[in-house]
Amino acid sequence: MKFRQILTHWRTSSWQVRQKFDRPTLVAIEQAIAVSEKLHRGELRFVIEGRLSLRQLFREVTSRQRALQLFEKVGAGETAEHSGILIYVLLAERKVEIVADSGITAKVPQAEWDALCQRMTGAFAAGRYRDGALDGINGATALLVMHFPATKNNPNELDDAPLIL
After folding, report:
1. Which domain holds residue 61?
2. What pLDDT is attached to residue 67?
3. Coil, helix or strand for 112?
4. Proportion of the chain in helix, strand, coil states, percent, rounded to 5
């Protein structure tokens, strides 16, 4: 663990999270997920975390490890077709992680999700948080429509509203 990393996390406040992901942006994310999930059988969950705790930093938890923890915590691993997808944003480190359940990973390689994470990270670095989030959802939608198209039975198993931790 590095002092600079601790300082970066410490300086990232909940106010900054709310500034970058304001109410209209959160509503747009929720609406984009709702529209997206009508087109495929995947279940998207969007989670934004401002910073990691000191305990997590001392344990050297990475953004990927945290995303994997949250994948289970938010129920993305409990969908009927194993079609859950977590889009995780760690604002302090400007990192995006996408974790897909086994039903999705059998059809969509991780490299596709990693490329989508890079696009989102680029938009966030330029201060375009709304655009980056919506681009991420649209990119996930395109992949899921191709590999996991909707059927008649397409229940909404996860909350569409983004979660801020």
Report:
1. 3-149+156-164
2. 97
3. helix
4. 55, 15, 30
Residue with structure tokens 């999270």? 17
Helices 129-147, 110-125: crossing angle, 10 deg rounding:
160
CATH number at residue 77: 3.10.310.50
List CB contacts of 33: < 8 A, sequence separation 6 or more: 44, 46, 137, 160, 162
Q: How many domains does the chain have?
A: 1
**What predicted TM-score, i.e. pTM, was given to this entire model?**
0.94
What residue ranges of the chain have pLDDT lower than 70? 1
Separation of alpha carbons 67 and 50, rounded Å: 13
